[in-house]
Amino acid sequence: MMQTKSPFIDTLFLLRKEECITIFSEIQTISENEEEEAADYFNAEFENERLEFLSDQLNCNKEAAVWAAKVLYHSAQLYLIRKDTVKNLDMLIPKYKGMMDVSSILSADLSLRFLPQIISVLQSADPEDPLIKMLENILLQFHYSGIGYNLDLEKISWEEELKDKTYRKLYLERIVEKKDYKLAEIPLINQWLFAEFGLHKQMFWKELKITNEEK
Q: DSSP code of 65?
């Protein structure tokens, strides 16, 4: 994908490929054409990542992908551009109203995986920023993208949440990647992790201990 003259598309492309972001002088309106271009881009990115989890049952949910991209773009711009935005936060950072399934979770993650970094920057600037709570609530709903960030997930039934084997595998892999001890020490997740490690636990996560306590 080549860079365009669209701040929205260029921001997404640079963030995913270079892990850097451009802050513009004002928040631009995202056109329908830009949304369609973003949908095609994320569909291609989803197909690339699907090669890693080898499932032909999961397809990109373009609605979820574009929604998440708009949330990420607006939250990044709102770090510096706050003039006359307080009353528009709900419009700039809308709640997700689409279908919630593994495809939508993974599609949204193409952008939402960068949200914890945005939140950390916002917290450094102003811990009382109302935008932080809005973004944390999004991560509570899409907590796969929040692995490594301190979220309150106590009410989740993990057996039900991770019943899809592909999603469970990806979830466990990200816990290991992020070294998220809070999640890894939940008894059921801990049990799954050690089953995945097998004889190679020392290689994957030497410091992690077996959790015996039932919660």
A: H
The stretch 67-85 carries a mean pLDDT of 84
Number of other CB atoms surrounding residue 137 within 10 Å: 13
> Residues with Cβ < 8 Å from 38, sequence gap 6 or more?
8, 9, 12, 65, 66, 69
- Residues 80 and 82: their CA atoms lie apart, in Å, by 6
pLDDT digits (tens, 9 = 90+) for 85-136: 566 889 999 999 999 999 999 999 999 999 999 999 999 988 999 999 999 9
Predicted local confidence at residue 15, as pLDDT? 85
Distances (CA, A) of 4 to 14, 34, 45, 65: 11, 10, 17, 19
Could you tell me which of 151, 140, 202, 147 has the C-alpha nearest to residue 175?
147
Q: How many CA atoms lie within 13 A of 139 on its CB side?
A: 24
From 201, 192, 166, 198, select the one nearest 52 (Cα to Cα): 166
Contact residues for 213 (Cβ-Cβ < 8 A; gap 6+): 187
The CA distance from 113 to 115, in Å, is 6
Lowest-pLDDT range of 1-10, 100-109, 139-148, 170-179: 1-10
Smallest Cα–Cα separation from 46: which of 98, 105, 94, 101? 105
Asked if residue 184 lies in contact with residue 205, where contact means CB atoms within 8 angstroms, the answer is: yes
CB 109 within 8 A of CB 101: no
Q: Are 151 and 136 a contacting pair, CB within 8 Å?
A: yes
